[in-house]
Amino acid sequence: MTKNVEVLALCKHRPIAVIGAGLVGAGWAVVFARAGLTVKMYDTNIETTHTAMRLIKEQLSSLSDHGLIDEDPGTVAARITPVPTLNEAIAGAIYAQESVLERVEVKRGLIRDLDACAPQDMVVGSSTSGIPASEFSLGLPISPRVLTVHPVNPPYLIPVVELVPSTQTSIESIEFATSLMNALGQTVVHVRKEVEGFVLNRLQAVLLREAWALVQEGVVSCEDVDKTVRDGLGWRWSFMGPFETIDLNAPQGVADYAERLGPLYQRIAQSRQHDSPWDAGLIENVASQLRQHLPLSELEERRAWRDQRLMEIASARRTKQQ
Amino acid sequence: MTKNVEVLALCKHRPIAVIGAGLVGAGWAVVFARAGLTVKMYDTNIETTHTAMRLIKEQLSSLSDHGLIDEDPGTVAARITPVPTLNEAIAGAIYAQESVLERVEVKRGLIRDLDACAPQDMVVGSSTSGIPASEFSLGLPISPRVLTVHPVNPPYLIPVVELVPSTQTSIESIEFATSLMNALGQTVVHVRKEVEGFVLNRLQAVLLREAWALVQEGVVSCEDVDKTVRDGLGWRWSFMGPFETIDLNAPQGVADYAERLGPLYQRIAQSRQHDSPWDAGLIENVASQLRQHLPLSELEERRAWRDQRLMEIASARRTKQQ
């Protein structure tokens, strides 16, 4: 914990660069600024940074309404400065979070630019969800200081971040990013190999594949899959992980559980290969089921509702921790 | 909704039989009694019903403390009568919930007994999680009135129940059980085919298989898997299902999402067969990781903590709905 505090103190003397000011970049700017850090925000399109500033002010105002920041939203927003060039963003920066377009040549170009002009000790976290950092960050002097720091959207509400080293990331960079993220109040998950989808999206993917397959086979409707999770499985998973959950579900803990239920789970796995594509007919089926309850025109409203619920959860958790 | 109210009114004139008074049966007794229904509780071991009554009184008292029942716990408990014979349990009963031992010959024997002496219109819901009702309920006059009504433990806190017809269950019986469960405040999920693990356990199973595999490959620790769900994925799943979640995660909804991310999910599925057993070494690895944070001796305490958290969620939801 001392280490986290030290790193945060260090970061207060030097700016944080937020590179790429879309939804993800804007979310990161909030995370850094609410912790008291100075943020320089850059995007190849200057207009995007202005849009981001408007969004950030709205988000900070919502956070304030839910008791999720203690300072005035204006005070926090004032720590974020849109800048017109990459050089201005990284001048003196101790850490850069890049959230540019999810295309390997774009990421590679950016890392090359950073290599040319970033401070010699600046660490770079990439928000990439789909491209391992090893595909765009190797073979340069900066390489040991680049790693994946993958957030869930929005990072100022949902704490988990996946830290994934490339094959050339140094231990020091991982340690720095870990301390920084912990100090910011994020929950760090260490992913030790660059597997596709990292951990969070892999776990989501297998559950989704099974859900789609069950709908395809006519076993269950989309609405009933949603009910199964929302009013069943998801309750425990909102405060305990899957291992913690099964550890409590057999008298002698997880090993006991594995012995009792492992064979059932293996049979379920064997019954399904999961590797067929979601074809057009299935997508049409799922979409039409969902559109019955929620017209496309109401998606935006529904997103706002979701964000409200997430804020309530964050707020309840914050109260508990204080 | 009118139908649910009608069914509940009908049930108030005739008792509900709870057969098998272990943890699951006792939980069901609470669900019926708190809705104002008269419950006759039977177990082949009379001592088990007395233990169940003590447990039920504790549970009702907890529910009352969390504002989850409006009546006095004693008033609710008084609706539940342990009886020494199966005949007394089902005399005049409109519905029986069986939660006897999860062994096919035990279930089959019970259904045969019920066939011989239950009221001609009594519907039987089985709490089976692993044995499809078609394996123990076919070929008898009572068969059209037997179906799976699979709860999550404890059913008085977690609302979801899976309704699964056998190959001989009548539509009327499904409709009756649906109305009854809805009237009791449970969330009904219709599982249309008797697939192994039904829906809830299948969804849990695939996520667990992936989690175990990632630990086996050294990608991530058990603790970090738990964090990924508890501080990431699980937040949304506590109030939205997986389809609802992805529907909001692409500008044009679920079809748009499937087009963007379907290929990634397919690659993840293709990268894994999931059908190898959890071997002794892996179980030992997982158990030793978990035991570092939570000694076996503290499991019971931790279960009590879990139940407190579930009550808080149930209580928050109840307040919202009122």
UniProtKB/TrEMBL annotation, chains A, B:
InterPro entries assigned to the protein according to its UniProt record, in alphabetical order: 3-OHacyl-CoA_DH_NAD-bd, 3HC_DH_C, 6-PGluconate_DH-like_C_sf, 6PGD_dom2, NAD(P)-bd_dom_sf
Alphabetic keyword roster: Membrane, Oxidoreductase, Transmembrane, Transmembrane helix
Record-annotated membrane-spanning stretches: 16-37
Domain 3-hydroxyacyl-CoA dehydrogenase NAD binding residue range list: 16-194
GO molecular function: L-gulonate 3-dehydrogenase activity; NAD+ binding
Residues in 3-hydroxyacyl-CoA dehydrogenase C-terminal domain copies: 197-262
GO BP of this protein: fatty acid metabolic process
Keyword Plastid among UniProt keywords: no
Membrane listed as a keyword: yes
Record family assignment: Belongs to the 3-hydroxyacyl-CoA dehydrogenase family.
NCBIfam families registered for this protein in UniProt: PRK06129.1 (NF004783)
Identification of the protein by name: 3-hydroxyacyl-CoA dehydrogenase
